[in-house]
Amino acid sequence: MDRRSFLRKSVGTAGSILCWNSWLPGLSAAELPADITAMSATELSSAISARHVSCAEVMQAYLARIRRYNPVYNAIVGEVDDSELLQQARSADLALSRGEYRGWMHGMPHAVKDLAAVRGLIHTSASPMYADRVAEQDSPMVARLRGSGAIFVGKTNSPEFGLGSQTYNPVFGATGSAYDPDLTAGGSSGGAASALGTQMVPVADGSDMMGSVRNPGAFNNVIGFRPSASQSDGERSLSASGPMGRNTEDTIQLLHTMTGVERGAYARLELPDLRIGWLGDLQHYLAVEPGILGLCEANLEVLEEEGVIVTHATLPMDPALLWLSWTTLRHASRQRMEAFYHDPATHQLLKPELIWEIEQGLGLTNEDMQVADVLREELYKAVAGLFERYDFLVLPSSQVFPFDKNIHWPAQINGQQMDTYHRWMEVVVLASLAGLPVVNVPAGFDADGRPMGMQVIGPYGADKRVLEFALAYEALVPYLEQRPQLVATR
Description:
Structural class: alpha+beta
């Protein structure tokens, strides 16, 4: 099998790990196959370790794609100089020639969400206060990525301090969806999802407090996974770091690296007799743009054809109480930013939504916090009861399709006014507040080609099972194969 055949076969053989023992000579940049960037991350990893492609060739292919498309989509920021990256790639090749293999990401380009520190790279947190900050050391997660062989090409764009499900900020501007650069990529991991959907990176790391890997996953037709929240003194964290991939297999690989925890072999979940509780719009509580529920329900029908038992489920507590608990706890978490609020020099640099959140936090009482905690405990019990009847709970990943990236957030849905800048993403609160593992899987496209996704939620700690369901679901639907028609530099 020649080199080009290998690349064509690897692109068309999803989920397989392909290895050959022969090394084929490198090609010049002009002859480099365009489809190197179309290979899945696991396929690319195998090709590099088997030395069917060199790290330098991989870097050249990705840099060419970044230079062509990133000026339009604005997904990657703080880019590292090409000559430096190519030198790092050549060093990775030399290491391989000496038998030194750093890990599954050996020589693979990677861009880290601009909320995490990468030694020597900008670390702005998308805030003008930190526009010139350069990280002096890696965050623990980034250190694991580096230890696995990743080469950092830059950062991925985020909203200021990660606030909001629309990726825009005064430092770098707005990020466009891989399927239409005039529409938002979602957020806060919007740069990560757009870079992934446009194939400017093989995999992408994100973080999720209020849908920040699920919403951009949906808006860019990629997989986004939020793991079970970590616990401290019995309390589950409101946020979690999570991987994103062009398929579930890649997402699983990155999850292991990000967490430093291997969870053994994964296999597609057997679908017959699985029980799914379809929560939809929470019995008309949520305002949802027309077409979204229909896309999700069509995919549930596909699952039913495979023997899955799908039932309309009811959340056994008032969703409005979840919102009360969620916003109280979220506002309380902003109190650590109080110093920025009180300092006139930094106050003027904060986005209005952040100022509002800090002010809401300043007004909280001990009684408010107690009520929020009681409601959260009620939710834990409610979802535990639901999981006695269902294996998974399913909701849309967003209440709206991707919208104009020049709009900061939707003011209304179906004529219903959104009273806060994040109310339009209320659909993600259940999993976030309960700290449950949840994956965004693709749900398809509307008539205008705008992508949408579904949240598949599992019981606390059932991360592996949730991802194994995603593996099975992915094999049934064609959406991940529907790549965007990209717009090159204008």
